[in-house]
Amino acid sequence: MDFILNFLDVFLFFGLLVLGFSVGRWKERRHYKSIREREAKYANILAFAVRYPPDVVTPQDCQLVAGSVVISSDYFKQIVAGLRTLIGGKLSSYESLLDRARREATLRMKEQAQRFGATLVINVKVESTTVSGGTRRGLPAMEVIAYGTALKPRVSPTTQA
């Protein structure tokens, strides 16, 4: 009994660590599932990094569309990344953070394009920045913004009749 009481802080720390890991993984899986479902939903809206539309003859209405997201890491990933920097190598926990943020921002951009009635987004750019300010106290978080020009074919008065 004394052994357990002496190491209660250690057991509590590891218990909270396992709880944080489990909840973080569950939330990440749930977010990836949501991303996959919405990627299938918006698959008909094409997004390209080219500057000019493939069909320059058809008159088209255009609008700037953008999607942004701020995603933060959890404490467990920060601890693992801190240990990983001692050994060296890739930080896969931060790679998944960037991947989720990039895909989420692109989906939000496509959602805005769909509300405009567009089926094509050209000149797509994706930019990211760290929003934690580089302080050691805060969790690493990043903002990703995806933006581009949404195009929808202009309906001529002769085709409406």
Structure description:
The protein is of the alpha+beta class. Helices cover 50% and strands 24% of the residues. Strands 1-3-4-2 form a four-stranded mixed sheet. The relative contact order is 0.19.
Which structural class do you get from the secondary structure elements? alpha+beta
Q: What is the rounded distance between the termini?
A: 87 Å
Helicity level: 40-55%
CATH topology: Translation Initiation Factor IF3
Strand order of the largest sheet: 1-3-4-2
Key words describing this protein structure:
single chain, 161 residues, alpha+beta, Translation Initiation Factor IF3, elongated
Please render the helix and strand layout as text.
Blueprint: H1 2-6, H2 8-41, E1 46-47, E2 60-72, H3 75-87, H4 92-116, E3 120-130, E4 141-153, H5 157-160
Parallel strand pairs: 1-3
Antiparallel strand pairs: 2-4, 3-4
Short structural summary:
With 161 residues, the chain is α+β, with helices and mostly antiparallel strands. The protein has helices at residues 2-6, 8-41, 75-87, 92-116, 157-160, and strands at 46-47, 60-72, 120-130, 141-153. The chain has five helices and four strands, in the order ααββααββα.
